[in-house]
Amino acid sequence: PRGIAVGSGGNIYVADTTNNRVQVFNSSGVFQSTFGSLGSGNGQFNSPYGIAVDGGGNIYVADTGNSRVQVFNSGGVFQSTFGTNGTGNGEFDFPLGIAFDSGGNIYVADTNNNRVQVFSPTSQPPVSTPEPSGIIGLGILGGGLVVRRLAKRR
User: Fold this and answer.
1) Are 91 and 62 a contacting pair, CB within 8 Å?
2) CA proximity to 85, closest of 38, 35, 40, 147
3) 151 three-class SS
4) Residue 145: pLDDT above 70?
């Protein structure tokens, strides 16, 4: 597993990367359900990595190998997807991290494009924020963006 998020109801969502699925646990850590499988169709994953839950309980998954973000309702039912492979705004190359700020903006660590893309909750075009290469995750703490970078091996 790579990513983890907690919904407002206490459910724990785990991006089970090598098994191409999301596992759901209750607040006590007891397994509840799973959704997703290997593939490129709606609701299928190719190495899901980052995961986040919005204020409405929707689950956003950085579907890394498919260069997109998929959205599911709190029950794990596919709702929508955005992004495709590329270098333009709204396109991704190896998206790894995903997070929300207090205004509902969606931040996606677009790793191989060396940037963080920001999407408004009303699905307006993204605003790209260049970042150094090697972005592997991000989070929002106290209203500020925190970017975690991959350290170079010596």
Assistant:
1) no
2) 40
3) coil
4) no
